[in-house]
Write a structure and sequence with these properties.
By secondary structure, the protein is α/β, with parallel strands linked by helices. It has two domains: 374 residues, ABC transporter type 1, transmembrane domain (ABC transporter transmembrane region fold), CATH 1.20.1560; 167 residues, 3-Layer(aba) Sandwich (Rossmann fold), CATH 3.40.50.300. The protein is built from 23 helices and ten strands. The strands form two sheets. A six-stranded mixed sheet has the order 6-7-8-3-9-10, sandwiched between helices. The protein has a four-stranded antiparallel sheet with strand order 2-1-4-5, covered by helices on one side. α3 runs antiparallel to α4, α17 crosses α19 and α19 runs parallel beside α20. It starts with 21 loop residues before the first helix and ends in a 19-residue tail after the last helix.
Length: 674
């Protein structure tokens, strides 16, 4: 059997789970990032300009002190040193790059001489301060551009992850949606995607800019005094260790927090959707306790994550402060000793550069937390993106032609969990144009049987074929194109009446939509809506009555003009007036159409060409209504039809009720419900 595993069960082992380490997941995220190479490259360039501008500010701020407050003798000596340094740097540039402007060294010497000219301290300060302001402006503009580009990349990836997840989820079988709550699915599509995106934003805003800044400041500090710079960097190993240890805790805590959010969303969604039941059964206190319990779980887990997140900053700052104190003591000694190896202006540059170098280190610790948070969310996102459907088209699948003769169930077995069989050796045929009514006790397998026809599940034994073609060997699209389904739960969407009836098929004309609505006896109420066919009916059709929703669902089935119609308790939620209208529409609709009806209505059962009686997953009887009643020991007569429905049938006949009785009024299996 193609499309199911050896246990005939949908397993989480079908998930291509991430390896679990942060790098493997983040490497996968980087694959998305690299699709935006141009934006990424420009953001890196801008991050470099941010770092250079800050480094320039430190250098020129130190030069303000040197050029403004030096004595004439010190100024002359510093001018000579600067001139020699300029010559050396230009020669290094020519040696490394292979080229430098011929007059570059002279231009730099003239600029330094201009600022060093005796008696021109004010001019030097004005020019240097102007340069500092310009550098700050350049740095600010570069930072704006860099952060915007990084945020845009993260936003694109967030949307991409959400779309990929949804595209994959809608391909998954019904079994997946039974295993996962709607709250969990929604949480992964929203919270997890956005959390992963926010983490990427934080990372890419700082991942390039902060290391560039650290490199620039390290270069300045190292050129000022190499030994002291090495001493100042002695704090980095313990800081990195703290980042790694706490980052691991943050990732674990974040994943648990996201799971708590999913649980809360499930309870909240159920509470809102079931508000009428909650109020009708005075369940407010019960629901409050459920919501409070989920919030309490979220609060406990959130506090654990916050503790880990909050600890990393103080710990790293304390370690860096200890190192900075040691650095200050040694540097002061180097300046004040008889033959100092460090000038005051160099000390100022050293202090500023090391202090500003520690700022990127602190921010990179925050980046680490953002990485772990993003990885925890992305891991959950990728789990759903990587899920593989267990019901897929076979490699040699054929396009199924419209039903010509027969649907055949041959020795069909089915189990939801791979252990307990719901259907056991079910065998019967449905001829073209035949209306089959399936009846039986609750849990007999009626709805399950209907779900197997459109291949929502694959049989675990036996086969279902249409005109001799096993439906597992046909494409799912060609199979389902022939089938219309009206389920016992009316499913409508927060869209217009037209969109709900067309069900995504834009080719339907206005006339065809109106004909379907008329056939479902819905024209009267639809044309009274404030925008008629363009009226948005609210979430799950909440602005309509139960009967109105049911009629729109039937109109959706009618417009498809299917070869096969499946009605699963299709009229069970209709009021008496609506039911009369719908029963008439269905009678007209099923003429000449192959129909499988699971209904509790006596009138529907009586109209069937054949009735199948299911009991404990087996077809125990079949025949017409009158035939089954004539069998003295038949289950249909003695347990399903006889004691409870016969009086109702007499009542119906005398009242001219045309099928208003329902087995919903009957007791459970032990009391003869079907």
């Amino acid at each position: 059997m193609y499309g199911i595993d050896e246990n005939t069960n949908y397993e989480e082992r079908n998930v291509a789970k991430p390896k679990g380490d942060s790098w493997s997941i983040y490497k996968r995220l980087l694959g998305y990032v690299l699709e935006y190479k141009a934006r990424l490259a420009l953001s890196v360039v801008l991050a470099f300009f941010v770092a250079l501008s800050l480094g320039g500010i430190v250098v020129f701020a130190g030069s303000v002190v040197t050029y403004t407050f030096s004595s004439p003798g010190e100024a002359a000596k510093q001018l000579a040193d600067d001139t020699a340094s300029i010559n050396a740097r230009v020669e290094d540039m020519r040696a490394i790059v292979g080229w430098a402007p011929s007059n570059l060294d002279q231009m730099l010497r003239d600029a330094v001489g201009f600022l060093r000219e005796e008696g021109r301290q004010t001019r030097a300060m004005v020019w240097l301060c102007t340069i500092v302001i310009l550098l700050a402006l350049i740095g600010g503009l570069s930072r704006f551009g860099q952060e915007y580009l990084c945020a845009s990349i993260a936003t694109f990836i967030t949307v991409r992850l959400g779309l990929e997840m949804f595209d994959n989820i809608i391909r998954l079988p019904i079994r997946f949606f039974e295993k996962h709550t709607s709250g969990e699915i929604i949480a992964r599509m929203t919270n997890d995607c956005f959390t992963a995106g926010r983490g990427l934003t934080a990372v890419f805003m700082k991942l390039f800019r902060e290391p560039f800044k650290a490199i620039v400041f390290f270069t300045i500090a190292f050129s000022a005094h190499a030994p002291l710079t090495i001493i100042g960097l002695g704090v980095l190993p313990p800081v990195v260790l703290i980042m790694i240890k706490i980052g691991q805790k943050v990732r674990k805590s974040m994943r648990r927090t996201l799971e708590r959010i999913a649980g809360l969303q499930t309870v909240s969604k159920e509470s809102v959707a079931g508000i009428s039941i909650i109020k009708g059964f005075l369940m407010e206190d019960f629901v409050r306790s459920l919501v409070r319990r989920e919030y309490a779980k979220l609060q406990r887990q959130g506090l654990k994550m916050m503790r880990a997140d909050a600890a990393i900053g103080p710990l790293t700052e304390f370690v860096m402060t200890l190192g900075f104190v040691v650095f200050i003591v040694i540097s002061v000694y180097e300046v004040t000793k008889p033959n100092p190896s460090l000038r005051v202006d160099d000390l100022l540059k050293l202090y500023l550069s090391l202090a500003m170098m520690l700022d990127p280190v602190r921010k990179l610790t925050a980046v680490n937390n953002a990485v772990q948070t993003s990885v925890a969310s992305a891991e959950r996102v990728f789990e759903f993106i990587d899920l593989k459907p267990d019901i897929v088209d076979a490699p040699d699948a054929v396009t199924l032609k419209p039903l010509r003769e027969i649907i055949r169930f041959e020795d069909v077995h089915f189990s939801y969990d791979g252990k307990t069989e719901v259907l056991r050796g079910v065998t019967f045929d449905v001829k073209k144009g035949e209306m089959i009514a399936i009846v039986g006790f609750s849990g007999a397998g009626k709805s399950t049987l209907a779900k197997l026809v459109p291949r929502f599940y694959d049989v675990t034994g036996g086969s279902i074929s249409i005109d001799g073609v096993d439906i597992r060997k046909a494409t799912q699209s060609s199979l389902r194109a022939q089938i219309s389904i009206v389920t016992q739960d009316t499913i409508l969407f927060n869209a217009s009446v037209r969109e709900n009836i067309a069900a995504g098929n834009d080719s339907y004309s206005d006339d065809r939509i109106k004909q379907a609505v008329k056939a479902a006896h819905a024209t009267e109420f639809v044309e009274k809506l404030y925008r008629q066919y363009e009226t948005v009916i609210g979430e799950s059709g909440g602005s309509l009555s139960g009967g109105q929703r049911q009629r729109l669902a039937i109109a959706r089935a009618l417009i498809k003009d299917p070869a096969i119609l499946i009605l699963d308790e299709a009229t069970s939620s209709l009021d008496m007036e609506s039911e009369r209208a719908i029963q008439k529409a269905i009678e007209e609709f099923v003429v000449g159409r192959t129909s499988i009806v699971i209904a509790h209505r006596l009138s529907t059962v009586q109209r069937a060409d054949r009735i199948l009686v299911l009991d404990q997953g087996r077809v125990v009887e079949q025949g017409k209504h009158e035939e089954l009643l004539q069998r003295p020991d038949s289950l249909y007569r003695t347990r399903l039809y006889g004691a409870e429905i016969a009086p109702a049938a007499e009542e119906e006949a005398s009242a001219g009720n045309n099928g208003s009785d329902t087995a919903a009024a009957l007791p459970s299996r032990e009391d003869a419900v079907y």
